[in-house]
Give the backbone structure.
Amino acid sequence: MPVVDEFIKANSTYASDFHKGGLPLPPARKVAVLACMDARLDPAKILGLEEGDAHVIRNAGGRATDALRSLVISELLLGTQTIVIIHHTDCGMLTFSDEDIHKKVRQELHADADHISFLPFTDLEQSVRDDIAYLKATRLIPDSIEIRGFIYDVKTGRLNEVQ
Amino acid sequence: MPVVDEFIKANSTYASDFHKGGLPLPPARKVAVLACMDARLDPAKILGLEEGDAHVIRNAGGRATDALRSLVISELLLGTQTIVIIHHTDCGMLTFSDEDIHKKVRQELHADADHISFLPFTDLEQSVRDDIAYLKATRLIPDSIEIRGFIYDVKTGRLNEVQ
């Protein structure tokens, strides 16, 4: 079965026993989670989130610069007060440089992505520290917002805080 | 208990019974899901995803322009072949304009975000169509990638495809 048909079938099962239709829009636990898009990392399972609990923002690497628009909306319009950043071991972002991907785009897509920074990194802990520092520095996230950063270990399922 | 301490406790429980440490980096089902960050929407539950199945990219509104960097990495470096876009009913993005949020940033943060488009929309179905059209038009997503778009109904738990 094509994957989209599988999704439609799975959703039909989910909707047939759905009892969460009355949840409010603002996140109940007043938190925005920013995590990598990696397939092995399920923020809800890792953190014990239920529907309605938290905004979940995800992108390649879980990078903060790429999430600023969403974080401002989360904090300023929807009242979240904490940001939790989650990067992870064995991340694809450790395996390429901007030059590599710019070249691959030219060769395989016959297109030009030189204007895009793909935000790879070479040091996992430093990538978390950089993203915390970026959010602490921007005036678009007020100082009252708590910002914490973690590395998720895909081998053990465990979160380790980056100090 | 502060929310981050609750997360650390929940993660300890998750990690204590973790048996998925051997999953490969590329998504098994070769799909990238692009969904809104909304707290009521859990892509894994809605679509029946297990750890390792799919990239999950999330931002305010589930907007494609904001996800292009991640989608290029997903397709070009990690082999996904399908993109599933999920916007949803009662979305916060229907409730404000760029002017509104630019003004609120000035008033409440004493900062300037006029250079940021926050990508709100006034027509939910059209927002899905616009994002599909954007991804079909960009040369950075090859024509071979299947792109489908859905609206998730937060009252019923059901996905409805946008044609």
User: Anything to note?
Assistant: Residues 27 and 52 of chain A are 6 Å apart (CA to CA).
